[in-house]
Amino acid sequence: MRVAIAGAGAVGRSIALELIDGGHQVMLIERSAAQFEPEIVEQADWVLGDACEVSTLEDSGIERCDVVIAATGDDKVNVVVALLAKTEFAVRRVVARVNDPSNEWLFTDAWGVDVAVSTPRMLAAMVEEAVSVGDLVRLMTFRQGHANLVELTLPEETPLAGRPVSEIALPRDAALVTILRGERVIVPQPEDPLEPGDELLFVANAEVEADVRTALGY
């Protein structure tokens, strides 16, 4: 994919390096001359300019990008970049960084955002996931909250031990997508038995998360 990243600070550069390692073509757009350092991420294309300006985006050829990531440290800038990328240049996928969780309500498809990533919320979820057993933990939100990635770790005394996946009566708007067992990543099949300590990952509508918990006996 060709990916444009607005903001070449520490976060933007780190994302760029990860994507380049994955074989993607990356362009970094940075308005601050102090942070315009092409030698740090030499494999990326660099553009010096304000990503909130239509002229900068036009000159960069952003319409040829498959994904735009608004990764600056300013939520107002990220929302504007997302809106321009989606409405003016019809970029298929727009991801935006949320710096202040109180601003999350802004990061919706009305502002051109397909995926909003809140670092504080993700860190909190990772802490919960690390210490919670037998409780549902929301790890990530998709489609502005219409779907969530949630996780539950089966405790040692789980009544589901030895029972096949097919016996979990999940609600309609939920799906078990992965079982993590030790170092294994298991794509669940109906006949696969569950074991204590399994980490179950579901994609579910927020409204049925309580039903998922009930289906698992919690």
Return the structural class: alpha/beta
The helix/strand order is: EHEEHEHEEHEEEEEH
Q: What's the name of the CATH homologous superfamily of the largest domain? A: NAD(P)-binding Rossmann-like Domain
- Give, in spatial order, the strands making up the sheet with the most strands: 3-2-1-4-5-6
Q: Specify Rg, calculated over alpha carbons.
A: 20 Å
Shape, please?
Answer: elongated
- Strand fraction: 25-35%
Residues in helices, as a percent range? 10-25%
The third-level CATH topology of the largest domain is Rossmann fold
Q: Treating each run of at least 4 consecutive H or I residues as one helix, how many helices?
A: 5
Give the N-to-C terminal Cα separation. Answer: 42 Å
What is the CATH architecture assignment of the largest domain?
A: 3-Layer(aba) Sandwich
CATH class of the largest domain: Alpha Beta
Quick one: how many beta strands? Answer: 11
Number of domains: 2
Protein name: Trk system potassium uptake protein TrkA
Domain RCK C-terminal: 137-218
Keywords: Ion transport, NAD, Potassium, Potassium transport, Transport
Domain RCK N-terminal: 1-117
Structure description:
With 218 residues, the protein is an alpha/beta fold. It contains five helices and eleven strands, in the order E-H-E-E-H-E-H-E-E-H-E-E-E-E-E-H. It has helices at 10-21, 54-60, 75-87, 119-131, 209-215; strands at 2-6, 25-30, 45-48, 67-70, 93-98, 115-118, 137-142, 147-153, 174-181, 184-186, 199-204. The strands form two sheets. The protein has a six-stranded parallel sheet, sandwiched between helices. Strand 9 (174-181) and strand 10 form a beta hairpin. It is elongated. The mean pLDDT is 88.
